[in-house]
Each structure stands twice: as structure tokens, then as C-alpha cells.
Amino acid sequence: MGSANDLVLTGVSKRFGSFVAVDDLDLTVPAGSFFALLGPSGCGKTTTLRMIAGLETPTGGRITLGADDITALKPYRRPVNTVFQSYALFPHMTIAENVAFGLRRSGTRDVKDQVAAMLEMVELGDYGRRKPAQLSGGQQQRVALARALINRPRVLLLDEPLGALDLKLRRQMQIELKQIQTEVETTFVHVTHDQEEAMTMADTVAVMNAGVIEQMGRPEDLYEHPSTTFVANFLGQSNLIRGELGGAEQADVVVDVHGTRLLAPGAQVPDGGREVWVGIRPEKVTLAAAGAGALRGANVLESGVVTDASFTGVSTQYLVRMPWGQELMVFEQNTGQHKGFVVGDTVDLHWVPDHTFLLDAGQDSAAGVERETVP
Amino acid sequence: MSDTEERRGGLVGYVLLLPAGAWLTLFFVVPLVTLVSTSFYDPAGSLELGYRVTGQVTNYASVLSDYSEQFLRSLGYAATATLVCVLLGYPLAYAIAFKAGRWRNLMLVAVIAPFFTSFLIRTLSWQLILADQGWVVDTLQFLHLLGEDGRLLATPVAVVTGITYNFLPFMVLPLYASLEKIDPRLIEAGSDLYASPFTTFRTVTLPLSLPGLVAGTLLTFIPAAGDYINAQLLGNTRTQMIGNVIQKLFDGGSYPEAAALSVTLMAVIVVLVLAYVRRAGTEDLV
Ligand SMILES: Nc1ncnc2c1ncn2[C@@H]1O[C@H](COP(=O)(O)OP(=O)(O)O)[C@@H](O)[C@H]1O
Ligand SMILES: [Mg+2]
């Protein structure tokens, strides 16, 4: 553990012709961590992974693993293994031969025993003599994992490893993968476009967009304190309201939002002008009948009109049209303590100032909104 | 499904098989039966006088003792040409499948292009290429790879070259079809798992292209073993293949011997092919 085995990308770029797929990327993956590279399709995740694996040569920058510069190392000399997006199992070999492949190359002795133990670990002990085509998608996925892990790589790269599985199996494999990672203590770099997957599995998430890292950190920090509108919208959902910075008030700052005075944590003030996006997550907001008193010190936006209410079981999701015309989202937990509102009701929006985040108004408030719908 | 429906379904199947069955009967079974029965006729007869059906096996004994040399030569030339076809065709097919990029279609057309000219014409042009005064011989003599009075035309080299040239596309096309189907990610997976490019080729690419290799060698070897045009146009009397003998016997009206030789050639090829396919274990491949 420790920095001796950190994977570090410094100013790494990849151009295909004139197209920049990865742009001056800086990334540190702590040794032993479960690291997720999250971003929409086409943002350069696979390309980044392939450069770490050595399957693609960076146009610029350096990749180091601990003290070793591996930028120009041939893929078959890197202590790194990949679980491919489509598994890429060798169709002409049995499962056992597939898993043994890497060990045979390095001339290890007790290959048979190790293969048996590894297949046992991924719960495929009885499948060694089958061919990949005779296995289900989930089983093939585990073979791909076993085939890579058995080599005890210093870094394991996983490219959307669960993308081809159905939802239920995917949830199950997320838990299993996480358990396996905890068990083997190898650094996992997990690429996905599924924000929920990234947040449930990873210690550290790097959100990638259009070839650059937007923000990196613990899932909780990213979610609670997004630093760009892209992250605010891509990780979960956010209400972004235009506001203007006022003075400071103890640890907080005052923001004027369409004539209403709101408070936000002072630590969050973005560089740049006085114009800001005031962000609040829909589930942090509570709805109250118009004019009902709020808790002391709460942020309040008054006189919204409910334009849509959809009951999802766990919660009710409201759309509320504000006096300045913007529709805000509010998710109310179905705790049974509130009576629901119906379309046409006039309501106030309350929330705790600490839950507010501020973003530079120079950005597009809709960045990252158009996500692929999760099947 | 009810009984009658099932029966009707079966009937439709048989009806659909009829054209193919008729075709096979007319153009394969009938000629084969004729050929085999002819091989047992009394060789003393002729087309004009008619043959006596004596059911004798002496035809086989005599052609085998008379022409075993040409027989072995045919198999040897065919095997050599097939081997050279593999050595030339595999890299070519590999390059077209993996390295050609946007030139791929053009290269495939180039492989097939010779078929637009007659087999005979193309073989005849090799007479010119390999001629004693041709540039190939000149160059080889200049490089002292060929003696002052050395020649290529009318030698086994010329015959094997001709066969190789003529059957190379039959090697390249099935090989290409096999290689083209290989997912490039499998090759990347090999290198990700510590296999050098050569090891990846040996353990991944080659085994996966085996069906194409087997098909290619069969499509080359079988017709090459029965070929007589190349030996006739590019060889001499000492490079005669079994096809030349059959043709000669045929021209001389010795139908029973020609038939016996043909049947023997067929039998030998079938045995060789079966042994080869079993050895290559293609039935086990995906
Ligand atoms: N070999 C290549 N040649 C040209 N463009 C490529 C190549 N590989 C990837 N790209 C482009 O680079 C961008 C990033 O691709 P990729 O890394 O696969 O994205 P992701 O994995 O995030 O979906 C895409 O726009 C893709 O079209
Ligand atoms: Mg990808």
C-alpha cells in the first residue's frame, strides 16, 4: 500500500488525427483503491484505459506505476491486466485454459492449482472444462475477471465489465466485484457510464467529460459538493437557479435569487464573477403549503405551483413552477408523515442552507443532463 | 403440432430436396458408377467393338505397376505447391484481414482478378515468364543462383510454380475468411496477458484460423493432385503427373485403364483428406 504503487497519469493526451479523445489528463489512482472512471459514452474512458494497458500509445504525457515509467512499455510487459468490455475470452480454449493463459506465459509452476483456486473464487469451480460459448453472460464475465486477476496484476483495468448484463445480475455482480476487490487488495480502475454503479462501488470517482476530468473525489463529496454543472447534473439530478452573490454572513454567503435572499456555505464560493448557479438536490428540498412557517434559518423559495406529481412508491417526484418561470424538481420521501400535494397547489420550497452549492455561472446549466436512460 | 402437419412438413422437406437430389444423381452418381464399372472392363475391347464386362481387377494391378512413379510425383508436386501456397498465402491473407485498412477490398479484388482470364492463357504466359531467354532466368543466372545452361521451363520447379500460381487464390480466400472473423480484441487480450506478438499468433490467431487453413489446403491439394495442364505446358516428359497419364490413356482409347487410374486417384485423395481432417481436428473447432 501507500504511494509506492500509485498509478499516475501526467498530462496524458491521445489524438486520433485531429480529433482529441483524451486531453492533457492528470490522474492519480491510489494503490489498492477501487477507482471509477465515470463519464458519458464517447468521453474517452476506453482510450484512457487502453493507454494504461499499453494497447494505445499516448500522443503526449507520462504514465507511471510506483517508481516505474510504463509509458512506452509493451502491453505484454506491463504488470497490468484488463477485463475487456466484451470479455474477449479465447473461444477455442476451455475456461481453465483461458484462466491459465497468463500464468503459462510467465512460466509459473503450480498453474493447475492456482487456476482451480481462482475458478473456485469466482464460483465457477465445475466449469473448467467447458468452452466460453457454453457459459452465460454473467459466467463469462467472471471468467474474464479470473483470467485477469490470477496474474496478480499491480493494477486491474475493467472496461464497462457489467455493461452487457441485465439489471439484476449487474447489481449482484457489483457487490461481488467489490467484495473481490476488498479481498485481493489490488488497485481496480473501473470504467463505467453508470453513475450509480460508480458511486456504489468506488472509493474514488473521477468524472470525465469530453476528454478531461471534471472532478475527482469520494462519491459522497462529488455528490454533495459538485464543482461543475456537468458533475451536478451527471451524478444524480440538480436544480440550478441563477443568483447573484452578496456579502458574507458568518461562515455563509448571501445569494440573491430572483429577489429572494438565500444562504450558502461560504467555503463553496466559485472564482469568477458575482453571477452564480445556486444548486440544490431535489431530495434535499421539502415542500410546504404556501405561507407555512419554516425552520429558523432555512432557505425558502415561496409561491411555486405544482405542475406535475408522480408517485414512484419510495418517493413522490414533483415539478414546481417558480414565479420566474423555471421548473424545479422536488423529491419527497414517502415517509407517510406528509400529505401529498396535487397539481395546481401553491407551495413553498424549504431546505437547509448547508445543502446549497454554488457554481460558476459561466457554465451551461444543462451540461450533463442528457444521460442515457438506464435500462 | 398434429401428426398430419408433421407429416406434411416432412414431405415438403423431401420435395425441396428433389432438385438437388436429381442434380447429384445425374451429374455425380451416374458418372461415378460409370467410371467405376468402366474400370473393371476388359481392356482388350474398344469403343467401336464394345467392351466385355469381365469384372477383372487386372486394370488396377497394371496401372499401379506402370504408373506408380507419376502417381507419387503428383502427390509430391501437389504437396509442395500446397506448402508454398500456405507460406505465400497466409501472410497475404493476414495482411488483407488485419493490415490493409481501406485497401482491403482492392487487395481482395487483386486476388480474384486472375480468374477473369482463362486458366490456359495464364499458364501459357508462365511459359514466357520462365522461358530460357526470359528475364527471370537471366536474373537468376546473373545472381549465380542458376548455372550458365540452367533453365526453369520444363523442370519440376516450373510445374510446381505453375500449380502454386494457379491455386493460390483457393488458399488465400478461405484463409482470409477465417482470419477476418477473428475479433482483434482477442489478439489484444493475448498481449494483455503477457504473450509476445509471436506467442499470441501461435496460441490465438493460428488456432482460430485453422478452419480456413484446412479448407485452403484441401482446395489447393485436391485439384493440384489431379492437374495436368501445368505439367503439360510447363514441364517435360520427366515431370508427368497422373493427370497427364490419364489424359494420354484416354486419348489412346484405353478407357478401362484410365478409369482404374482415376478411381485409384480418387480413393487415395479421399483417404489422405480424411486422415488430414481428423488430424487437424477441425470438427472440434468453433
Ligand atoms: N482508433 C480510433 N480512431 C479514431 N477515433 C477513435 C478511436 N478510438 C476512439 N476514438 C474516438 O475517441 C472518442 C473516445 O472514445 P472512447 O475512449 O472509446 O470513449 P468511451 O469509452 O468513453 O465511450 C470517441 O469519440 C471515439 O469515436
Ligand atoms: Mg468505452
From TrEMBL, chain A:
Residues 7-235 form the ABC transporter domain. NCBIfam families: potA. The complex is composed of two ATP-binding proteins (PotA), two transmembrane proteins (PotB and PotC) and a solute-binding protein (PotD). Belongs to the ABC transporter superfamily. Spermidine/putrescine importer (TC 3.A.1.11.1) family. GO terms for molecular function: ABC-type putrescine transporter activity; ATP binding; ATP hydrolysis activity. It is an enzyme of class 7 (translocase). Gene3D superfamilies: 2.40.50.100, P-loop containing nucleotide triphosphate hydrolases. It comes from the Bacteria. This is Spermidine/putrescine import ATP-binding protein PotA. Part of the ABC transporter complex PotABCD involved in spermidine/putrescine import. Responsible for energy coupling to the transport system. It comes from Nocardioides donggukensis. The keyword Membrane applies. GO terms for cellular component: ATP-binding cassette (ABC) transporter complex. SUPFAM superfamilies: MOP-like, P-loop containing nucleoside triphosphate hydrolases. Its EC number is 7.6.2.11. It catalyses: ATP + H2O + polyamine-[polyamine-binding protein]Side 1 = ADP + phosphate + polyamineSide 2 + [polyamine-binding protein]Side 1. It holds the Pfam family TOBE_2. Keywords: ATP-binding, Cell membrane, Membrane, Nucleotide-binding, Translocase, Transport.
UniProtKB/TrEMBL annotation, chain B:
It is a multi-pass membrane protein. Signal peptide: none annotated. The keyword Cytoplasm does not apply. One of its GO terms (cellular component) is plasma membrane. The keyword Mitochondrion does not apply. Residues 71-276 form the ABC transmembrane type-1 domain. The chain crosses the membrane at residues 12-33, 75-94, 106-130, 150-176, 204-225, 258-277. Pfam families: BPD_transp_1. SUPFAM superfamilies: MetI-like. It is found in: Cell membrane. Keywords: Cell membrane, Membrane, Transmembrane, Transmembrane helix, Transport. InterPro entries: MetI-like, MetI-like_sf. It comes from the Bacteria. Belongs to the binding-protein-dependent transport system permease family. CysTW subfamily. This is ABC transporter permease.
